[in-house]
Structures are given as C-alpha cells and as structure tokens.
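Long-time lurker. I teach an intro course on protein structure, and each term I like to show students one example going from raw sequence to a predicted 3D structure in token notation. This year I'd like something fresh instead of my usual example. Would anyone be willing to generate the tokens for the chain below so I can use it in lecture? Attribution to the forum is fine with me.
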Amino acid sequence: MILKKTSALLSLEKLLAKRILFLDGAMGTMIQQYKLEEKDFEGDRFKNHSIPLKGNNDLLSITKPEVIKAIHLEYLEAGSDIIETNTFSSTQIGQADYELSDIVEEINIQSAKIAKEACLEIMQKYPDRKCFVAGAIGPTNRTASMSPDVNRPDFRAVTFDELRDNYYQQAKALIDGGADILLPETTFDTLNLKAALVAIADLKDELGLDIPVMLSITITDQSGRTLSGQTVEACWNSISHANPLSVGINCALGAEEMRPFMVELSKIANCYTSCYPNAGLPNPLADTGYDETPNITSNHLEDFANENLINIAGGCCGTTPAHINAIKNKLIDKKPRAIPNTKPATRLSGLEALTVDPSLTPKPFLMVGERTNVTGSPKFSRLVKEGDFEGALKVARQQVENGANIIDINFDEGLIDGKEYMSRFLNFIGSEPDISKVPIMLDSSKWEVLEAGLKHIQGKGIVNSISLKEGEAEFIRQARIIKKYGAAVVVMAFDEEGQAATKDEKVRICKRAYDILVNEVNFNPYDIIFDPNILTIATGMDEHNDYAINFIEAVREIKKQCPGALTSGGVSNISFSFRGNNVVREAMHSSFLYHAIDAGLDMGIVNAGMLEVYEDIKPELKEKIEDVLFNK
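-- Reply from a regular --
Happy to contribute to a lecture. Here you go:
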C-alpha cells in the first residue's frame, strides 16, 4: 500500500532540510513549579476516586487543562517548533496504577487538543512560524524482553500483543485529537518499541496516511546500552525498518554523557537525528532537581551542532523554557546534520549488531548454529522434552562459544507445542546476554510458530522460512508481516510445483520470489536470504548425484540475478547418506562449503565448532569426497 504523506510530514521535511528544529523541554519539571495538591489532580470529576491521584501528571489534561496549556505556550514562546503532548503514561498499562485505564482515550484526545490549541495560538500570533504537536508515547512501566522476577527468567509481566494493543489505542487517540507526529520515546526495551512500531504501522495502513514518526531511545549509563542490553547500533538495526523521520536519544543522561552515543548514532542513522538530554545529573537541592543551567545545557548542544550530530534539539528531565530558549538562540543559525549515505548491507542484531558488508574482501561467511533444533539434535530434543531448559540453554551457549554468528532455533516436533516452546525458550535466551548477543534465526514450517517467535526477540532476527509453495498471495501476506516486524527472511526454493532440484529450477524460483519481494512488497533486498535447497547426495539414485553441483552453480547465478540478496543452506543435509560416519561427514561439509563459499554462499546452518579446516583434510579423503560432490 502506498501511503499519502501528511501535510505535517511534508512541512517537517522542508524545515529539517533547512535548519535544526527545536523540541520542548520537560513537562514534569514545569508541573512541579505549580506545586499542585491532590485536589488539583482530582478536580471535581475524580473527587471520590478509590486511590490518590497526585503524581498522575497526564490526568491534568482533564482536571487542570489551563496549566498544561500554559506550559505548552511557555515552550512555544521560548522557541519550540515541536511540543509534546502530556501523555507519557497514557496507556491502559500506565494508567492501571491509578485505576484509570478506562479513560486513556479521553486523556490522549484531550492532551492532543490542548497542545494543538497552543500551537494555533502561536502561529496566529507569529504568522511566519510553523508549530507541530508530537504525540508522546512512553515506554510503559513493563518490559517485554526482561523478567521482573530473577527466579523466573522466562516470565514476562506483559506480552507483545498487549503492548501493541495499548500503543495502537494511544496512537489512534493522539491522531484523533490532532497530533501531527507520533513520538515513542525514552525506550529502554527495544521489544516494547517494536510493539509500538507494529501498532503505528497498522494505524498508518488503516488511515492510508504516512504519519511522521520520531523515535527516541534511552541509554541508561556509560556502558552505551539500553536497559534491555542492546548497543546503539544493535537497537538501530532492530528499528530502522520503520523508516522514521528521526531517531535520537533522550533522558537518563546529560548531554555531555550522551556525546559518544550521539556520535555513533549520527554516523549510522540514515534519517534525521534528535537529542534531548536531561539537564545534567539529578540534584535534589536545585530548583528543577537537576544541575545544569540553561547556559551549560545549550553549550553542550551547540557543540553537538558544530560536530554535525543533530537535526532536532530539545530537553528532557530538569529542562525548562529557559533551557529551550538558550538552545534555540545558540543553534538557530547552525547548519543541520547531513544525513549520511550509509553503505548497503545486511544489518542484523541481537544485543550486539551483526553487519554483512558485501564490499568486504575476503567476503565474510556466517555460521548459523544448528544444534538448537529438535529435528537435528537428539540431545537438544531430549532436553526440551524433559523440560530441562537449563540444559537446552547450554547447547545454545556452546554454539555461540564455538563461533556461531547466528543461532537457529526450531521446535517442529509432533509431541511438543512448537508455538509455546518457541516463545518460552526465546524468553530464557533473552535473559542470557552471552547467548542473546547474537541474532536469532526463527526456524519452523509453521507460520504461527514463526510469528510467535517474532514477538519474543528484541533484535533484528531472521525468519526461516517462507516460500511460494502456497502461492503468491500467501507469500506476499507473510512477507509483509515479516517486514512490519523488521526481520530478515529466508526464502526456500519451493513453488506451487514443489521443491527445486535442478540449477535452473532453483534460479527461476528464487528470481521470481526476489522480484515479488522487491517490487511488490518493497522488501529490502539485503534482508532477503535464499536457500536453494542443499539436498542429499550419494543416495544410490543417479538423479541425486548432481545435487551438490546444482546447488553451487545455482548460488553463483542467484548472486548475479538477485543483487543484494544473500544465500544460505542447511549444510548437514548434503552428507545425510553417511550418517554415523562423522569423519567423512565433517570432511564433506568442509569441502562442500569451500566450493560453495567460492561461488558466493554467504551463510550456512552448521554445527559450529565441528567443521574441519579444508586444507587439513587428508588428501586421499578429500579426493574421494570431491569425486562424490562433483559426480566424477
């Protein structure tokens, strides 16, 4: 679906091409200056509410709208181009603490209307100005990637679907109230943000509108990671599929502490960047609760502008209209950051980023650990069926320790519930940083298992797999869902006629799938991975003897006809006729990979740590193996 750009998006793009834009500062800091009491939060409507409401700042949009509007006007007069709605906690989850989940739509609509009124007043007063309302969408107080109970690492206090529904309700109400922009901010768990992005994508499709989306993450300390453990680059790889207007960093740190992370983000983000830091570090003795004066904060952001780091600047906790005015005065004539031309590459992530750069020489080969697969590993299957998830995690950890760049996870077994086991095991992995640092390949022949898996990984993973077996319509439907979740995809060389065995069939099916994905689904070609089917040789059937040659030559041609796409395959399939003879199998895998990689194979599903070095294979054995591989 082609979405129509909103007038706000068109205006913002024009302005951002010319100059740095200015956000507002902290709403909470300004509310504190009014020294409001319980009765102010209750108003007449909530006088007999069941629990105290003081501290529920979002409710003031209903009970004290004049206060919220006055704060918006102060920020606009100070120079803000974009003001945020008073809705940081306006989801059913956020308002549950105050037993007000039933009025979240009203809070969001009313908050957006108040902000819009303030913008219209300023634009009427200053006809040369354009002002915008950003619908503030906070992260909620629950985490989809982490357990709140150290004794139950697989437990989650919220599901992806619950978050998606909460965010959808909030985003729709903000747009209904007149918000120009949607701003999921202060993200400390990327899986929460991915749920918000799915919700926003659904809303855009429903409305047929390309609504500007600004994203802002929170780096919690000098480790340079989010609270859920991702690095800046890993997080960007997870969310870049949303094609936001901007991405940035806010909260937790002052500008000076944010500097190295803004430097990194400004280099890798192919969109505009924002920064709205706290006013330094907390200080309970300061009037605003934070150390930095407007002059100090604005000096830091001026340095950021001079270093070509930002397109949008503002303030978070402890900042006031005085801070925003100082920032505006120092940055108004600064040149905005130029969006970098990032090199095309396959970009994946777990807690850490994994980039496959096709321009590198020699070309890197990625190993996908195969042992966390109930159909391929008797040990893993036994541990899972016994409910020994600790033991199953050890298998995953060994794969990573042995060099796996990605781990393949599969629960396709008739005696277990694949959807439930996939979800639970991914939750366990999410609590193990030494495993979850690498990207996850979700492996299943069942679509419901794959989609469940997508809802449990905060990184950018790989779906393995989809195909044209059930026709183009279903292929396109599944591809669009995968794209919405921001994952890469393995496409098998299957079509309505069955599995491709010859070189020509493999190439024809993969090219057809590529054209559909790129031209109809608008799928990033660098997120497409073709598996042209590694089939077993030396079975005793003559028609199987060319399977290795067919695969290798198909890879070579697919790389030519499908620019950007990667190739992969399950390597152990090639030697299945020799099961029980591990010496031959390991040597065969090594020899097959040596030639397949030379033809362009980018990754392979292997038992990491069990591959023999090609040059170390005994010459006599190598000669016999290659006679079999090449049907001599």
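Some talking points for your students: The CA atoms of residues 556 and 598 lie 9 Å apart. The mean pLDDT is 96.
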